[in-house]
Amino acid sequence: MNQTEPKIKVTANAAPVVASVPRINISVFCTTQATISAMEQVVVDRRMTRAHVDVRNGGIMSAAQAFSEATTPDVLILETEGHRDQVLSELGQLAQVCDQSTKVVLIGHVNDVILYRELIRQGLSEYLVAPVHQLQIIDAISSLFNEPGADPIGRIMAFIGAKGGVGSSTIAHNIASLASGEYQVDTIVTDLDLAFGTAGLNFNQDPAQGIAEAIASSDRIDQTMVERLLTKCNDRLNLLSAPAQVEKSLGIEIDTLEPIIDAIRSSAPLIILDVPNLWTAWSKQLLTNADDVIITSTPDLASLRNTKNIFDFLTSARPNDKAPLIILNQVGVQKRPEIPVAEFAKAIGVEPTAVIPFDAHVFGTAASNGQMIDEVGPKSKASEQISMLGQLLIGKKTEVPAKGGRGSALAKLFPMLRKK
Ligand SMILES: Nc1ncnc2c1ncn2[C@@H]1O[C@H](COP(=O)(O)OP(=O)(O)O)[C@@H](O)[C@H]1O
Ligand SMILES: [Mg+2]
Fold first, then answer.
1. Which residue's CA lies nearest to atom 6 of ligand 1?
2. How many CA atoms lie within 13 A of 407 on its CB side?
3. What b/e string do you get for 247-276 counting C-beta neighbours within 10 Å, with b at 16 or more?
4. Which atom of ligand 1 is closest in space to residue 367's alpha carbon?
5. How far is Cα 154 from Cα 262, in angstroms, rounded to an integer?
6. I want to staple 148 with a disulfide (CB 3.0 to 4.6 A). Which of 75, 347, 367, 405 is the partner?
7. HSE on the CB side for 159, CA within 13 Å?
């Protein structure tokens, strides 16, 4: 296991990226209210939607009894308040009924390194010390299914507009350009606006079939195929562009998109999803599952209403995540009545993260030339706001321990195991 080698990862001023849990059965036995409460948060988390989870009261012996007749699930999470000898003896009894393929995670109340070593020697998958946080549990479960040394999964930033034409794609592309340029983070822009997408135009690239081919072959898509479908803009920036054709009406299904997103995620540390202004099962799911969501809006009533609806929906669908960021764009069009920024913020309940003025010259020139805002108007207010947003979303590159295997989670729990 190569867990001590540091890898560069995007910090994006947020919690580390925790992978979704695959379609598995999980049974949980808890003995304390605190762990039950954490499990209640785990069950409603977006990363758990594929898994089936069953939470019961009880400890290791309750599990041993419950599974004396039934087959054990893919993962068993058990809480114990016992000490070393008791834990080992109870696990011995559980082993009599536990299927070999079942992975067992123990939540204990003693920080005992000898116990930990013995448990791992006996084949336990993970030992967490209570109190446990919901994300720590999800990370522990998903790490069980990520091969140690596997490629770290990329952070997904999804951009959506409150209406069409508010500038969501333009901002998404500019953030991608900053990430790959100034911050030197390998970035893939995925244009999901199949018929009308502008990523190719904005980056001055020839049209390509990228995402359309990915959808057509989603049953066998993998990292190698994704790499073949990418259009290279520069060393660190690639596009999975939309065909921008109207002859065929391409449908997108959730089941089609899921393997594509999984494959893209393992190809680069940062994925920018340019989501069209559509509210469909797949767009809802993509936004719900993204690591960061950025809603671009304009200061008018329809945008305000839509922003509030999208914001409220996502905030309640993602209880363990940061709230979506709001960008107020195209502010200050001459003679146009607008909702003032303060009123807009009050109605949504949060301040916009960036306020970008309407600047016909800078945006118009950028769009016509296939250039970025900081190339066309490096001193403009728009460029300053986009750069601030980039700093907030991408942050500085820092060194963090490599993900994968059980090392990362355990080092947090057993400080004495940490390599100096
Ligand atoms: N702040 C702004 N000032 C002037 N024009 C803008 C601004 N933001 C975006 N635009 C222009 O608005 C148009 C629509 O932008 P786009 O990013 O395609 O919107 P969306 O993806 O939300 O539909 C583009 O021509 C773009 O150049
Ligand atoms: Mg768009």
1. 363
2. 17
3. eeeeebeeebbbbbbbbbbebbbbbbbbbb
4. 27
5. 9
6. 405
7. 28
Residues within 5 A (CB) of ion ligand 2:
169
Tell which residue, 169, 242, 178, 256, has the closest CA to residue 205. Answer: 242
Q: How far is the CA of 335 from the centre of ligand 1 (A)?
A: 19
Best residue for ligand 1 mutational test, from 159, 168, 169, 170 (most atoms within 8 Å of Cβ): 170
Q: What is the CATH number of domain 155-399?
A: 3.40.50.300
Cα of 279 vs centre of ligand 1, distance in Å, is 20
CATH architecture type of domain 14-150+403-417: 3-Layer(aba) Sandwich (3.40)
Amino acid letter for position 265 = R
Q: How far does Cα 321 stand from its chain's mean position? A: 9
Q: How far is the CA of 190 from the centre of ligand 1 (A)?
A: 18
* Tens digit of each residue's pLDDT (9 = 90 or more) over 34-48: 999 999 999 999 999
- How far, in Å, CA of 282 to CA of 292, rounded? 17
14-150+403-417 and 155-399 agree in CATH topology:
yes
Ligand 2 center from residue 399 Cα (angstroms): 34
Residue 374 alpha carbon to ligand 1 centre in Å: 15
pLDDT digits (tens, 9 = 90+) for 301-319: 999 999 999 999 999 999 9
Q: How buried is 114 (Cβ within 10 angstroms: 0-12 exposed, 13-18 middle, 19+ buried)? A: exposed
Instruction: List, chain by chain if needed, residues with CB within 6 Å of any ligand 1 atom.
Output: 161, 164-170, 198, 296, 329-330, 356, 358-360, 363, 367, 382
Strand ranges (E), 75-140: 75-79, 103-108, 126-129
Give residue-wise pLDDT tens across range 334-359. Answer: 999 999 999 999 999 999 999 999 99
**CA proximity to 277, closest of 169, 162, 190, 189:** 162
User: Domain segments of the chain: what residues?
Assistant: 14-150+403-417, 155-399
